[in-house]
Design a protein that fits this description.
mainly alpha
């Protein structure tokens, strides 16, 4: 029972690390798929472009099927593939930064739990203390879960990527990149469509410029949210670490307070 917070920490650490590696691998696979499609489009390698995807990842299948659909229509645009590559690179960087924050938080949590438990064990041999309350491991585990939950809830969600796959916004934005006639993604695109019909001209360049601008706006918003999280991060750490240390050292602290008040 005393080691419950430590066991819970190890389980959470493995779970978070596994999920993070899975996300990074899925993004890397998608990046490789888009690079191969772009290279094939630049070299006009129709065999490579028409080849079925060899991965079961939904994001890779989705992008390759889009590329093949618009290849057969004669509307596959290399510029769209390059924009998609930029979005994937930005998502990879976002995942890397968030992974660093998670690793930093979990490493420090583990250090606080281990060293406070060792400190309590050593000090109890020097100072006669009251028995360790069975509520301490339960409360410590609850604090640990609350800290991890608070960390995950305050990290910015990616507009492009969500749990090993493209997010709904990521899928719609990607489809809008490839499909010059799809204006359902955003009201601004619908306005561009109406102007195309009214003026009788092709505004594909304006549509591409808007999609690029929208992508940059989402990335800037994610960076701003991440900066706010980094400002809040020390407060979260102080609350979680201080509470965990105080709980594990509570028998010693109670004894010291009793000696000082005597």
């Amino acid at each position: 029972m005393v080691f419950l917070p430590l066991l819970l920490f190890l389980a959470l650490f493995v779970l978070i690390s596994t999920r993070q590696r899975g996300d990074q691998q899925a993004l890397a696979t998608l990046a490789g798929t888009v690079r191969s499609i772009t290279a094939a489009a630049l070299s006009n390698d129709l065999a490579q472009l028409s080849a079925p995807t060899t991965t079961t990842a939904h994001a890779c299948r989705y992008v390759r099927e889009l590329a093949q659909t618009y290849l057969y229509r004669g509307e596959l645009c290399v510029e769209a593939l390059r924009m998609l590559q930029q979005a994937i690179s930005a998502a990879c960087e976002q995942q890397r930064l968030q992974g660093q924050l998670r690793l930093l938080f979990m490493t420090r949590v583990g250090g606080v739990i281990v060293f406070s438990m060792l400190g309590n064990f050593l000090l109890t041999h020097l100072i006669a203390t009251a028995p360790h309350s069975y509520l301490v491991p339960a409360v410590g585990s609850a604090v640990l879960l609350a800290g991890v939950w608070g960390l995950e809830k305050t990290l910015p969600a990616s507009w492009f990527w969500r749990q090993h796959d493209l997010s709904p916004h990521g899928q719609h934005w990607t489809k809008a990149l490839f499909d010059r006639h799809d204006h359902s993604f955003h009201p601004t695109l619908q306005q561009i469509q109406r102007r195309e019909i009214t003026l009788g001209i092709d505004l594909s360049a304006e549509k591409t410029a808007f999609l690029t601008h929208w992508q940059h706006e989402q990335q800037d918003a994610e960076k701003a949210t991440l900066r706010k999280h980094q400002d809040f991060f020390p407060i979260l750490e102080l609350l979680v670490f201080g509470t965990l240390a105080a709980l594990h050292l509570s028998p010693v602290l109670r004894r010291l307070f009793a000696l000082l008040s005597a």
